[in-house]
Every structure is written in C-alpha cells, then in structure tokens.
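We modelled the chain as a single entity of 527 amino acids. Its sequence is:
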Amino acid sequence: MKNKTLFKTLFILLLLPISLFTSCGGGSDDPTEPTKPTTPDKPSTEITIKDGNDLYGVITDQDGKAVSGVVVTDGYTVVTTDQQGVYQMKRNTAAKFVYYTNPEGYEPDNKGFYQTLSSATKRYDFKLSKATGDDTHFYLMLITDPQVRSDKSMVRFRQESVPAMKSFISSVSLPVVGWSLGDEVHEQCPQYEKQMHELMTGMGVPFFSAIGNHDYFKVNNSDTEPRSMSDYEKYWGPTWYSFNKGDVHFIAINNVKYSSGTKYNDNGYIDEAQLNWMRKDLAHVSKSKLVIVGYHIPMTYKSANTTRDQMINLLATYPNRLLMAGHTHYMRHSVTNNPIKIEERIHAAVCGAFWWSTINRDGAPNGFSTYEIKGNKIVNNHWVNTNENMPDNIRLTQGDFSDGDYSYGLSSDYVVANVWNWDPQWKVTISEDGGTPVEMEQSLKHSPKITNDAWSDGYLIGERGRKASDFQAYNQHLFLYKLKNPNASVVVTATDRYGNKYTQSTFTTDFSECKVDGTTFSPAKKR
C-alpha cells in the first residue's frame, strides 16, 4: 500500500483563555486541574491538523490577532506558529506541559506561558500581551535559595526579602523581570510551596523559577526511591523552558538528578531530553542575542561531566553568553575556558546560611542581585542587601580577629576586606591616612593562602554552633593588606567592571549585624 499523507480538517472554536491559577474568589486552587474547554461565543477558526498530531492550538495577542513565529514546545518537540497563529505537534508520551517562548516585543508571563496537559484535551490556546515602552532596557532581579523551612523563616521571607524586592521594583523606572534559581522551600516543607509561589509572583512583575535540589520531595518517605518534583510543578510548571526579554534569551535548565531519596549529582547533570530540547530551542535564537542560562547547581568549578560540556558547547556560537547559578549559599564569579570560555556567576542566598543569621556562609549579607540589561549587554550589577543595616559590598576586619578556633592567623597590622560581589574584573585598593591607593592582595595569593572568612565562621560555627562542613565556605573574595602604619586610618575602595565604587573605612569588631530575634552572641575575641 502506498503511503499517503492524511489530513483531517477540524473546525474548532476559539477558546477564551483560561487561567491555570484561579483567584481565591472561586474555582479550584489546584493548578494541576486540567484546563477544560468552555463554550465560546466567537466564530470558529479552521485548523488543518496533520495526521498523527494530537497537540495543537492558536496563539493570539491581546486584541485577538494571530501571532506567527512563536516557539511552542511540550519539552521535547519544538515548533513555531504559522501565519494564523496555529501550532501543532505530536505529543511526546513523557510530556506534562505545553508552553511557549514569548517572542521579542511581548511580555514574559510566568503564569500564562504554560498549560498542564490532560489526556482528554488536545487543544491549548494562549494569549500574549505586547510589551510597553522600550523592551530592550530592563532589570533582571535574581534571587536564589529562599529555602523556607518553618513558620519563622516564612515570616522572615515575608518581612525581609519581599519588602526589599518590592522596594527595588518601585525604585527603578525600567521594567523588571524576576528569576529565582531554585530551592524555593525546604524539601521537608511542601506546605509552603503555594505561599512562596503567591509571594514571588505577586510582586507585579514576571517572576520565573528554576528548580533546585530542595524542591524535590521524598516519595513515600523513602530514602531509596528517587525523589519527585511534582509538588514544585504544581505551582511553577515546566522545569526547563525559555523566555525572551528585549535582546536577551533566557533558558532555565533542571540540572538536579536524584539517584535515591538522599543522593543527587552535586556537580550538575543535564539529561539528554533537555540537551535535545535546548538545541532545538537555540535554533530559533539569533546569534546577536545575549543568552543567559540559569540553573541551580554550579557546574564550572567542580569535576566536569559530559552533559555539562555538551550544554556549554551549545552556546559556542553565541558571542554573548552567561551562566548563572545558586545552591552554594556563597558568592563566586569566575570564568572557565573549558570547554569554551564562559563566565559562571554563583549567587549567594536570599536566606543566607539557611535563615540562621543575616549572612551567607562566606559572610555575604542575605540578599539578591540586580542586573541592568540594555540591548544584548549587561550594563550594571548590584548586590542588594535585604537588611539595610548591613555594609554595602565591603566588610573590614583586622588581621588578628578571632573567635575561638576561627582566625585569619594574621597580625593586627593587617587589614582584611571581604568584597562579596567581586569578580576578576574588579579592582580593590586601600589608602593609608589619605595617601595614594594601592592594590590589596587576594587572600588566595597570600602565603600561606587564606581560604575562609574567620569572621563569618566565628559567628555561624563558633557562636551559633553550626556544623563546619555545612557552614564553612571556600572564599575567593577576601583581600589583604599589611599596614605601614599600624595606627593609620584606612579607606578601602572596590571598583567593579561598570565603574561603580564602594568604599569602607570602618572595621567590624563584633557580631551585632548577624543578630536575629531570639539569638544571642558574645563579643568577638582577639588573640
């Protein structure tokens, strides 16, 4: 029998968009409830469906006009809409969602960009909103590791983190896109997932999430069965996706792989399905774009794995490329040349050292990062403290600072500067008594090299009694200088790659900035 291409012509009514997230005023609040067709009151739209395709729909703008060229996927197959705004594909048996990549000139929509698939429904329509103003100049507000794990930490996130983010949003005149790089809640606390989703997506700006290891929950409380991400997917949808804003293409990757209820790949893993999807996704992205890939677990400074190199190599032909991660609860920004030259920026946590204090493991304050993006370039970057009483980017301590077993092992005429948002393009200088500034020495280049911040170790481990293996952090952003005059007044200046200057002349001598309600501390000790 000769093979023939069969066509079925179906007349299917345009559906009014149905939100997957209904309000408290009525309807189900279970976002996994399948989208149900409603009886429309508009003329029918003809869709010619190719034989074998069982996933399709129409994408229109807010005026009901078809939008062509929109990239649509089920996470495996990638297609684009035609001149009538129609997309269609054969649904992959492993697919859970159908979703689109908003085209340039249209607003990213963290709630409306996907729909949960059901076995009974084949058609899923989407509606886009056109961006207003200059779509190519905006802020990325990036957070990692809220990791809410108790009522108390939920209160702190509500009262410290959310107001700081809202304050930033209201203080700038440019559009803002929010992005979290995972660990929205602690793995033992799925009851907070809905509240966190509502808080983060309720700030009046698009707010996306990339899944973290703590967003996976045990199955039947088993330590041997691999964990499930279904609780996370109920609220955040697909765990790999992309969206555009101006001249930037954002890609979220799920690089967490649990082999049991307790073990996961801590150097990042990207399965073949995601690599295939990302390759297809990038085929629709202009080489002139800035491509930012965000994920939870850092991948460039640990032992490499094959999937990591395959993912990074997909970016080789994009001159403007950047990797962003969280997970570590410390800052580390560095460039790798393997397999290609690329920068990976590891961001400290908004929860700091797991809500035990107001600092991260490396001494960086609890907070988040803001990136001003113009065209296909990042033109500014700041670390925003969620506690306004914390120092701005620099903390000074004396070389003989110690707390119990934690010290720098230096004499009192040394100045130690912790410059947490530092990267290799920064310059850190010090002046004595108003003299000519000279460059400070990175502690990793000192002999012997200093790899840990004694001040943060002294508080988190010495004062709070936390486990050193969990709370110490290898620190690349400590700087040292031996004073010529031990009694000199000093000014330390850190200048970033964008020309921003941060100065500090006051030494931190105790742990008062670390204190949270209900905690006590003893004065810092000197040797």
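As a brief sanity check on the tokenised model: The CA atoms of residues 257 and 264 lie 5 Å apart. The helical segments are 151-171, 193-201, 230-236, 272-282, 306-313, 454-463, 468-471.
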